[in-house]
Every structure is written in structure tokens, then in C-alpha cells.
Amino acid sequence: MKISKFRTKSYKSFSNTDTIEFLEKINIIIGHNDSGKSALLYCIKHPTDRNPHIDGIHELPGDRFPTETKLSVTMSLQELFDDHKRHRISEFVFPIPEVIIDKDGQIYEPEYSRVEEIIRSTSHLEFTLEYRDGAIQLSDDLVFSGWRFIFSDKIRTAFKFSIQNSSIEGSTTFSEHAFMANAFQGTVSRNVFYFQPERLNIATYPSSFTNRLESSAQNLPAFIDTLIGTRHDQFDMILHHIRSIIPTVGNVSTRSDPSIPQNRQILVWPTTSISNPEFAFPLNQCGTGVAQVLAILSVIATAPPSIILIDEINNFLHPASIKELLRIIRTNYDHHQYIISGHSPELIAESYPSTMHLIRRDGYESTVIQMKVNDYNSYAEIADHLGISISDALVANRVVWVEGPTEQICLPFIADHVKISIPQGLAFIPVVNTGDLTGKTKRKLVELAAELYTRMMEFGLIDDGKAVFTFDMEDLNDKQKYDLAKLYRGRIVFLPRRNIECYMLDPSAIAQCLNILDIGRRKDYVVQDIYDAYTDVSGHYGAGLEFDKLADADEYQKIGAIDGAKIVGEIFGKLTEGRIRYDKKRHGIEILKLRAGFSEVEKAELIGFLSEAFKKIAIE
Question: pTM of this prediction?
């Protein structure tokens, strides 16, 4: 689920925002204090809020223009059904449209069988909700995977979906257009989480089994208690994350509230060991950032794909903590859509945003300007507006230089999952996208990067003690590794295997990834399909070994005899008949996320590799 477009008229300091477009992953909103950032996020979460624009002309509230808001949303039907199931809604009524228009503009009569076929085969649904004076209505058209359904307000036939079975069960009459608007609004509202820059007064909550955090986070004690008791692996990962974001947090636990025994209370420990509760701090006595981060992590680590609004992130987190939270979001939880506001250089530098909007305010009027995310001049304009240096917005304190974008996102993810703490203020930055380069061409480029690094260090442009380079082993022999180490003055660490994909050779994860990607498949892929596809390339890229023996074949891996990238690429191409080409950056991280875990041999290698890299960076 994601918000694709948003527009509000006559709301607080905005007379008209015009249409604001959002994309997947992280979207950032930048501006000075009191420019309108918080108003914008509040309106997204509460689109029925009526707070007409004060323009300095119309004195009485009744004379001002009413607030109007439009919210365009994209979601899958499965997301709609799953939300209804979670909230015990047994059915969903969907009206037959007046007209159907296909992707080429061809108009069709809304025959029952055609409508049913389109709905059954659709992958996603797009709709727009309109809000005026507290009332909600659905725009007159919906889009099902490119098919546009046009509606009117008269009585019509409708499908009746059984939520329990995710199936169409018969038809009914339908006369209330607002019913469908309210149903869609309910789903959107329940899946938008809004974190404001204020202390979360979460002291205690009645003990109960709960699988979902409320948007207010008031049930956080009961939710954490449930995670500890029934989903400890998820809680363990949340705990690992919060320790890396806020190093003063050693552990988190729950207990019965001494003053209200039927309630649960969260305790925060400055040490990893848990002993006497009197040595711990109740959550409501900790800093604002602790409760905020614990609530944010609890949502993004456990909720289905949702919309996460984080307002003024720099108001409750230290700059280093902002960087670490954003890294964790990008690396582990980018299946959510994020809209984050702030005015700190860390937000600009570490978010790698999909969209970037600047809000300016002049007197009574706030305006929204969409900036180009890959344009230096856009960053320079934002830095100038905020009164910060462009280097503050774009330069990291400590750097692990990696081969390309694949390693940039995969290595931090691996570090989290083998429980290696990443030093605060550290950034993973690609030297160059070397994914399509091999052999002498790639090695020449690596040598040029070393020469450039040495020159910059000699002129004092970079600090030698705050950078380390990591490269794939490829098929380098010991002499070639030694020569590169000399070039990089010893500040280089080689991945223990030929390439990062050698840690992705998990047949179940590859099959799951292909099932998600290959919409045109005739059947779901299973583990046996991966084994069969591998058979044809095992001699070329797998040293003739059986697939199940690749992960722990360290004697072959250490000499580069197994080429994980080629194996994964060949399996993708063979099974999908060329429909899906393996994309290192997009697909590699998805396979890693789908893995159940690393083998002990793999884990030992990765811990050793990352530990060595981090030790080479001077920690102040």
C-alpha cells in the first residue's frame, strides 16, 4: 500500500499545495520550523480535519474557504482483504461499474463476467478519496491494473466478496456510493502510522495478547510483552536495532506495573544483563527518543506494508541516531512507504529519498516545491535554504567503500542479521557500479580508485583512518590480493567468497523471490525447480557440486571456484524463460531477506569479514 498523490486546499498555512507525488520507500519533506511540514503530515493522517487557511484577509472562520483534500492510494486486493480479516470484517461489497475503459482507451460494456475476470486477475487497485467539510467520497473511477472502472451514484448490481475465502460469492444490489468510500478510508486509516515529535506518554497498559500496535502506540507495553512471549526472534531484532540507534539502551523488558498489577510496564536497562527491576528505568522516564524509536521499530518490523509518517525526526533523535535509523529502514524495512519531515543534513544525506519536497513559507502562505533527487543543484538549494553546508548534507564521517549499489544495501543487512554492530556515523558508499565489469577492466578501475584515494589523502582531503575498502574476491590469487593491499595502504578487506551472491544460494529463498517477481508464471516455483535449473550450470559455475553443498563448500568458495552471481542469474533466466533478468541491486537484497538464516560456516565468514573491516576504521 502506498500514497501516490496528495493535495490539500485551504488547510492551515496552505491555500493550495497543488498535487504532491510520492513514490515507494523513503520520501522526505524539508523546511524551516513553522514552514508547514507538520501540518502536511497531520493532514495526510487526518484528511477529514477542518482547519481553513488563514490568509490575512478573511477574519471570520465562516468566511474562509473550506478545507478540501484529495488522497490517491495504490494497494493490492490482497492487502484490502487482509486488512478486513484482521479487523473481523466478513465481506466487502463492490459495485458493477457503468463503463470499463482499457489501457488503450477502448470502452466496454460492464458485463458481469468481464468485470469478474478483471477483478480476479488484478494485481493492484488505484483509487482517490476526496474530503470536504468532514465528508468522504470516492472519485468516480477506480483502476484495476490499468483497467479504469467508471461509476455513477444510481442503484446497481454489486459483487459480494467473502473476506474469509478471498473469493467472489454471488451478487447483491448496491445504492450507497459512500459505503465503498468509507470501506477504503477505513483500510487506509488503519495502515497509516503517524509519529509526532513529542514525548509518548506510555507508562502502562492493560495486559493483553495483541499482534498489532495501535497508531497512537498506547498499547506498546502489551505489544512488546506479546513479542517477547510469542515472537521472540522479531523482538530480538528490534532490540539489536535499538541498541545500534541509541547505544545507551542495553536491554528492554516488561513487568507487571507495581501500582496497577493487571497492567504491563516497559523497562529500559542501561546494560544487556537483566537483574533487579529496581536498576531499570520505566519507559516514560527515559528520553523522548527511546519511546519513539521503540514504537517505530515495533511497527516497521512487524506490520504488513504500511505508510509510515515521521514528523520532525531531528526533534527527538541525535544526528548519529538519525543516520542509523534511516540505514536500518533502507536496509531492512523498505517494503513500507515512508514520508519523513525534518530540517537536518542527516535526513538529506542518509535517506537516499525517492522524492524530495521543499516547503517555503512567506507570511501567511506555504508552498511545496518538488526537488530533483539526483540533481546537485537541488541539494545546494536546500542546503542554502536551511543555512547548512552542502558537505554537511552529503559527506559521511566514516566510510566503508564497497563495490557497488548491491553491496551498499546488502552488507548492512547482513551485519544486522549476524548481529555485528555497525559503528555510528558510518556510511556504506559504492566506489562505482562494477556489477557489469569483469576481469582486467574491473581490476583497472579498482586500481584507479586506489590511486585517486591516495592522492586525496596526500592533499588532506580525506582522513586515512576513517575509510576502508571492501571488494569481492572474484578469482584473485594471493599475489593479486597482496598487490591491491599495497595500493590501498592496507585499508582493504576482501569478501571471503567470489561475490556477494555466494551468500544467496538458498533454493527456498530463490523460489520465493521468483514467485513474487514472475507474474506470468504458469505455476508456483518450488525448491525442486531451483535444483533442476542449477543442474545445467553446475559444472560451469558451481564446481560440479550439488546445490545443497554450495553454501558450506568453503574450500571451493575460498578459491573463487563457485560463482554465485552467475548461478542466480542463470536460474532466473532459465526458469522464467527470459521474462525476469537477475538484477543485482533489486533482487539480491530480496533473496537475502527471504533466507531463513545463514549456515554456521557462512556466519563465521561474514562475522570475520565485517569485524575486520570495521576495525580498520579509526573510532574516536
Answer: 0.84
